[in-house]
Amino acid sequence: MNKEGRVEEEEEEEQTFEELGLDPRLIRALTKKTIDKPTPIQRVAIPLILEGKDVVARAKTGSGKTFAYLLPLLHKLFTQSSSAKNLAPTALILVPTRELCQQVCSEANSLIELCRVQLRLVQLTSSMSVSELRTTLAGPPEVVISTPACIQTCLSNGVIQGKAVQDSLSILILDEADLLLSYGYEDDLKALTSHVPIRCQCLLMSATSSSDVEKLKKLILHNPYILTLPEVGETKDDIIPKNVQQFYISCAARDKLVHILALLKLELVQKKVLIFTNSIDMSFRLKLFFEQFGIKSAVLNAELPQSSRLHILEEFNAGLFDYLIATDESQSEGKEQVDDQNGSERKKSKKHRKHKLDAEFGVVRGIDFKNVHTVINYEMPPTAAGYVHRIGRTGRAYNTGASVSLVSDEETEIFEEIKSLLGENEDKVSQFIAPFPLLSKNAVESLRYRAEDVARSVTKIAVRESRAQDLRNEILNSQKLKAHFQDNPKDLDLLKHDKMLSKKAPAPHLRDVPDYLLDPTTQEASKIVKLARAAMGNTNPSRGKGSKGRFKRSRDPLKTFSAEAPKRAGKGGMKRKVKDTDNGHKQ
Ligand SMILES: Nc1ncnc2c1ncn2[C@@H]1O[C@H](COP(=O)(O)OP(=O)(O)OP(=O)(O)O)[C@@H](O)[C@H]1O
């Protein structure tokens, strides 16, 4: 690293965790998690943090930022002398959402569990009462993971004394710093900084650089090292990790259902699949639609109680179901656009505004979905930054992934904005986001009749009823879940979130697509996707971390296969390059 804090990656490429100077117990814990070499951000950040430097680390989604600060933090706590009795925690990790609190806390606990040390890590969230906060903070624990709003509640209620923070706090970490201000935590953070002592080491981790990050840097850090990795944010082409292949399909809004049905039912994308919609109603519409074709899925959104959300995430991560439909922006609710049944009109709906949405919820932001191979944008996100965060849920760490965006005419503007953020200009051939090559027009048409028939049965009333029913169930579940998970944090099988909502069982002829409906090209494409999945060791969705598919490009069907029917089936179709797919997309 030179004086400006830049990383010369080649020099440090081969460094191991041992060489970074970490405690052997932590290295053993990593090995048990089958993590054997540091990611680039970890190689650079860990030594600096161990030296006590203030650090601003910017690294792409999924690049391993959490361990980049947790490992040196735990190392320091393992080795520090415990002579002085602190009245407040030694380390404070602030994150924007409760889901992240939970995630960071369980990542940290999974490391220390294996190290057998006396160290207490707790999470505090705004759902806790003052007396719960007081009990949790008794001791005090060495590390607190929380949101800025909750820490402010603790300070203003005297649960934590400002003076005690000044005496005890030695490390403050702001994770997902680019999001903290957008979640409205500015005042809470300002109130906290007056208690943060000058000697306190401050770390700021973020996926993107923005004026908010600059603001926070000025507010909290003292002359920090700014880590600018060569592969991060310097040029536009590296905003999305290179191991994620991005595709799009242009289609009319009313044809999106038949397109997504073809993608899933004909198995043209790899599982697990995370599907994004912009409204909760749309996610239920999709779930009900899928059910009729025997495709099981679960929905995740800001309306659900927190314990249900955590449970859904845990089940999905554990591989108990393959399709998760997420609505990522709580703010988008109320502004939602709902297609009517034939999709010809779009109108604003203010229904369900009355449902309380959790402001501390963030599906997309920073959540570490495990082994998601494909992200589908069923609806394009409202902003280009939203696109980056959505796509960042796949291709985490050394895994590979793909994204498929369904783009309607109405979404062309945002799609252009995304392409220009990725670095494409109008006359250039698409480099970063290409037409999806495996779906032929014939394949879509073969399913059209069935899809449209089922779509008609998924009426707005059906959607509304299912949404209300699901919410009622989840509220009931959440009470049980809360109690249950306190006693059995690892028990994942209590309740199912991918259960059928529709009263009508799927008709057998919709469950299985008969052969006569499949054209040979699609059959071939689907076979290749399955083979690739098998080659990647990705046939069993419930395989754990050890099964990370290292995707060889030569085996990647998206790179080697064209859906365009070869002149003669079976001859040369496998390697032909896509020029113009029959979805009408040019490459
Ligand atoms: N050195 C490593 N080798 C392999 N996997 C790793 C390594 N470090 C972390 N991981 C795994 O990579 C995944 C992504 O890590 P993490 O959540 O820290 O990413 P991130 O940079 O914080 O992403 P985001 O900005 O989206 O929050 C996690 O599942 C984590 O366990």
TrEMBL record:
Stretches with biased composition (Basic residues): 568-578
Keyword ATP-binding set for record: yes
One protein family per Pfam: DEAD
Catalytic activity: ATP + H2O = ADP + phosphate + H(+)
Main enzyme class: hydrolase
Domain (DEAD-box RNA helicase Q) ranges: 15-43
Annotated EC: 3.6.4.13
Residue stretches of biased makeup (Basic and acidic residues): 332-346
Start and end residues of each stretch annotated as Disordered: 332-354, 534-587
Placement of sequence motif Q motif: 15-43
Ranges for domain Helicase ATP-binding: 46-227
UniProt keywords, alphabetically: ATP-binding, Helicase, Hydrolase, Nucleotide-binding, RNA-binding
Domain (Helicase C-terminal) ranges: 243-444
GO-annotated cellular components: cytosol
Entry superkingdom: Eukaryota
GO molecular function, one term: RNA helicase activity
Keyword Chaperone appears in the UniProt entry: no
SUPFAM superfamilies according to UniProt: P-loop containing nucleoside triphosphate hydrolases
Family: Belongs to the DEAD box helicase family. DDX56/DBP9 subfamily.
PANTHER family reported in the protein's UniProt record: ATP-DEPENDENT RNA HELICASE RHLE-RELATED, DEAD-BOX HELICASE 56
Protein name: RNA helicase
Organism encoding this protein: Solanum pinnatisectum
